[in-house]
Design goal:
With 137 residues, this protein is an all-alpha fold. It is built from 5 helices and no strands. The protein has helices at 2-25, 45-58, 72-88, 103-114, 121-130.
Length: 137
């Protein structure tokens, strides 16, 4: 009995190790359960950091602090980021400029980030999992 328990633990540890390694090198899929980022939402710090870094990377506006907290500065940045998407990609995404980073904003920014050679693929994949999106991008 003791050997079965030990073998079971080894199998579980090996499976966790394989999942951990493949999760680091494989392309992450969108997380359909990722909450919106904005006032009134859970605001997972990893998702807020992605939004803040995308804002700093893509918009020509002065950078904001990347601290994982959603506050007035990040709220204004989300609105400017949504406007930037609509101006830079006319008719392609048609985001509502509301300061809420939801599934449509996630679809747009992950799609744009995947096409930007300056952003590391592993970073974009992590954000694709952390941010709300309607589909795998």
């Amino acid at each position: 009995m003791r050997n079965r328990v030990r073998a079971g633990r080894l199998v579980a540890a090996a499976a966790a190790g394989v999942l951990g390694v493949t999760g680091l090198v494989g392309t992450a899929e969108a997380n359909p359960y990722a909450p919106n980022v904005g006032y009134g939402y859970a605001n997972v710090p990893a998702a807020v950091i992605c939004v803040q870094q995308f804002y700093n990377h893509f918009t020509p506006s002065p950078p904001i602090a990347v601290d994982g907290r959603f506050g007035p500065e990040t709220y204004a940045a989300v609105k400017r980021l949504q406007s930037w998407v609509d101006v830079s990609y006319p008719g392609q995404f048609q985001l509502q400029v509301d300061g809420i980073f939801g599934k449509r904003s996630g679809d747009a920014l992950i799609s744009i980030a995947r096409g930007d050679w300056r952003l590391p693929e592993h970073y974009v994949s992590q954000c694709a999992y952390a941010l709300p999106a309607t589909r795998n991008l």
